[in-house]
Amino acid sequence: ELEISVSSLQEALFGLNRKFASEKKTDNNPLQGIKNTFGSLKDELFSDDYWEEKDRKTLFPSEFFDAMAEAGWIGVAMPEKYGGAGKCIQEAAIVLEEVAASGAAMNGATSLHLSIFGMHPVVKHGSELMRKKYLPEVASGKLHVAFGVTEPNAGSNTTSIETFARLEGDHYLVKGRKIWTTKALESEKVLLLVRTQKKDEVQRKTDGMTLLLADLQKPEVSISPIPKLGRNAVRTCEVVYEDLEVHISDRVGEEGKGFRYLLDGPINIARSLVIDPLSTLSIHTCSIIFPNLMSS
């Protein structure tokens, strides 16, 4: 068994955060400051053995996640008002780029990215009650959040989703099935895109979809990991909802505008936060396999 001292890891990450805070006061390029801050991540903290064991045993990297949360990196792109650092998506992308480059690869990056950017629709369109209730918990790492959009009969054609939420009094009842929901097993909440109007009842196919912040660990929810090749420390799941109750206060923004909120948040942001670490990882891998080529 690989033993990890969580307290020492947290202290090291706190040191990295303090180092960045001191450097950025004199650094004309704060993005380079983040890169410098995380330059020693692999040497000081998590070895290749740590990530190999997590991937082989399909174990979520809790020690890594908790240490990053304690040091304040989970809330890097959240407003300071709600416990975050108030930085931009670009800074968050650099953090994940450096995490991936450290050897953590996508096991490290995807354990963090939904917590870092997944609640952006709540930041921009959620009620003040939602923001105060959930954002500090996510920024501190106490609340894990997943993201449920893709469905087996819709694929990348998001407007064809069939998961439906019917309004009954002060709550919705959600029924349907999602696939490729990353971190569903670890998350207490899921940012869930549902239809509140059927596709054939709306003028534009992007209308009639609503974004809900729903509970995951409930008897009405069934979660099944999907076998995949690689990145097994962070599992991706099929999730079935059987009349899951979601209070109307946990609706993000207005009913029927969920697709627009989606584009304003996770979908477009994900391009920076996922592709950037992947690009870095590819360059890092090539530098190992083709050292002469990469140095020329």
Q: Write out the strand line-up for the largest beta sheet, numbering strands in chain order.
A: 1-4-5-8
The SS-based structural class is alpha+beta
* Structure annotation, total helices: 11
- Overall pLDDT: 82
Task: Flag low-confidence runs.
Answer: 1-10, 23-27, 280-296
Query: Separation of termini?
Result: 41 Å
By DSSP, the count of extended strands is 8
* Helical content (DSSP H or I, runs of 4+): 40-55%
Order of helices and strands: HHHHHHHHEEEEEEEEHHH
Beta content comes to 15-25%
Rg over CA atoms: 20 Å
Main beta-sheet annotation = 4 strands, mixed
Shape: globular
Any overview of this molecule?
- Strand 2 and strand 3 (171-182) form a beta hairpin.
- The N and C termini lie far apart (41 Å).
- By secondary structure, this protein is of the alpha+beta class.
- Strands 1-4-5-8 form a 4-stranded mixed β-sheet. It has a 4-stranded antiparallel β-sheet with strand order 2-3-7-6, with no helix packed on it.
- 44% of the residues lie in helices and 18% in strands.
- The longest helix is centred in the middle third of the chain and has 29 residues, at 89-117.
- Mean pLDDT is 82; it is low at 1-10, 23-27 and 280-296.
List the helices and strands and how they pair.
Blueprint: H1 6-23, H2 30-37, H3 41-44, H4 48-56, H5 62-70, H6 89-117, H7 120-125, H8 128-139, E1 145-148, E2 164-168, E3 171-182, E4 189-195, E5 209-215, E6 221-225, E7 236-247, E8 251-252, H9 258-264, H10 266-289, H11 291-295
Parallel strand pairs: 1-4
Antiparallel strand pairs: 2-3, 3-7, 4-5, 5-8, 6-7
